[in-house]
Every structure is written in C-alpha cells, then in structure tokens.
C-alpha cells in the first residue's frame, strides 16, 4: 500500500483585490481577471482596500497602484503584510514617477509593473506568483505530513491543538481529543515483519480519515503506533460513536493479533487558569484514558472520568 495523499485541510480559494484610483485601469484589470475566471474585488484607494481585509476578506493576491488618495500603495503594502504576510502583492506605478523597484520589494510586494503595461506582462507575473505559492504550499505540507501514513505529524499536532483549543474556548463549542494505540503491535511485527507493520499503520490512518469529517476533524500520527484525533464541534456522545466505529472497523481488518485501544477527553477550561495548562491537562487526561483502556485488555474506548462527569 503506497502512502495516501490525503487532502486533510480545505484548499484555499484564489481571490484577487484590485486597488486603483483610476476607474478605467481598475475596470480593465478586473475585467481581465474575470475573463480568466479569477474572483476579484476592487477598491478605489488603499484605505478602502484595508477595510476589506480587516473585515475578513481572504485574498491570494493584491494588485495595487502606488500613488492614490487617502492611503498610498506603499503604506497599504506594509499594513497588509502586518495583517497577513501570506498575501502576495503586485505594485503598479507610472513611468516618470519617482519610485524604485527596491522600494516596493522592501515594503513587502512580490513584484512590480509600470504603466502603461501589456496585459500579457501582468498575466505572466500573476502566473509566476501563483506557481510559487503552489510550490510553497507543497513544501509546507511536507513539514506537516507524516511520511509513512500521509496524515499530519506530531510537530503539526502540537501547533494545531493549541490553535483549535483557543478557537473552541473563544467560540464556546466542545472539543475532544482522542489518543489511539495499536494493541500487540510488537507481536504483530515480530510475527509478520516490519513491512506488514507499516501496512497496518497505513490501513489505520485510512480508517481514521474515512471515518471522520473532512476538513473538520484532524488526524495525526503521534509516534510509532500511536495516533491522535482532534474532534471539534462535537459532543461526547457523538465523538464516542465515531471512535467506536474506528475501533470496530479496525477489528474487522485482517490484523490479528493486533487490535485498537482509545482514550478520549474533552477540553475543559476554567477562568483564571492559563489556557496552556488546560491544553496540557487535556493531553494528560486523554493519555490516562488510553492506558486505562490498555490495562483493561485493549480493543475498547475509555472515556476520561472528568469528561464523563462534565457530559452527564
């Protein structure tokens, strides 16, 4: 079984913002982007563009003039980069205007073009930027992906758990953490060999991914034969149903003598306590529940006692 290329995070949608005080140039660029099926918003100056970004609009690429009323392009570029460094920017200015390529690049722009320009030139610059973004995304995925199973790795788990717990706390929805461990994995390896053991781990990753909500639940390989699963926006009863389904599906595979144990805990944060302490406590309680499951012989799910009391 080859490593799966799971698409575990929702792909970002490409969206452009054209910032230009000249209505004819603004319309020309917007029409050009629309012709190439590129969703696009427009703004007549830097301040209105910044307002759109602060309202939560997520742009891939901004094409902005430099000399505009209310807020010039260089100021806009710097402020955009402070808010979201991932946004790429092409700066536009006219021949004869005293602005250097060095100035816009140091401000944070990805490229620079002078008026009057051919649309072919603009298209080439946009394509180059989008290719580079795609390459960066692939490289970033490699740093987050477990090379054997194709799901997320432990390094990304530590980053993502903190982010998801903060979000659950702010938006006041439940979040559960499940820890899995393959029972008798050493015996399985000793009997069938390490290649078969790798195959088993890939199979388990596939079961977890196919049993959970795409782009919502987050699966990770924690290390060795241990896996973890973050289940946001899910109550304890529903989360337990998902985990028991994973355990049962794994049992139905031809993996004897191996089976699967799991421990689950709910994120519980109280005012006056540091949120990192609550996150550490969540991991500790899920881990304790997992080892209680293993102490009971494995092949079961154990719910952390604090989670059971909280949910009752």
From TrEMBL:
SUPFAM superfamilies: CheY-like (SSF52172), Nucleotide cyclase (SSF55073). This is diguanylate cyclase. GO terms for molecular function: diguanylate cyclase activity. It catalyses: 2 GTP = 3',3'-c-di-GMP + 2 diphosphate. The modification 4-aspartylphosphate is found at residue 65. GO terms for biological process: phosphorelay signal transduction system. Pfam families: GGDEF, Response_reg. PANTHER family: DIGUANYLATE CYCLASE DGCM-RELATED, REGULATORY COMPONENTS OF SENSORY TRANSDUCTION SYSTEM. The keyword Ribonucleoprotein does not apply. Keywords: Phosphoprotein. The keyword Phosphoprotein applies. Its EC number is 2.7.7.65. Residues 15-130 form the Response regulatory domain. Residues 173-305 form the GGDEF domain. PROSITE patterns: GGDEF, RESPONSE_REGULATORY.
